[in-house]
Amino acid sequence: MTDASAAVPARGPVTRGSVTRVGIATACSALCGYAVLYLAARDLEPAGFSLFGVFWGAFGLVSGAANGLLQESTREVRALRGQIVTGPERTRPMRVAAVVGVAAAGVIVLSSPLWSAQVFGESRWLSVVLLSIGLAGFCLHATLLGMLAGVDRWTQYGSLMVTDAAIRVAVAAAAFVLGWGLAGFLWATVAGCLAWLILLVASPTARAAARLATAGSPRTFLTGTLHSVAAAGASAVLVMGFPVLLKATSGELGAAGGVVILAVTLTRAPLLVPLTAMQGNLIAHFVDQRHRRLRALVAPAGLVVAVGAVGVPAAWLAGPWLLRTAFGADYQAPGVLLAWFTAGAVSLALLTLTGAATVAAALHRAYAAGWVGATLAAVALLLLPLDLETRTVVALLCGPMVGIAVHLYALSVHRAGR
Question: Where are the transmembrane segments (predicted)?
Answer without folding.
Answer: 21-41, 47-70, 96-115, 127-148, 160-180, 186-209, 221-242, 254-275, 296-317, 337-359, 366-386, 392-411
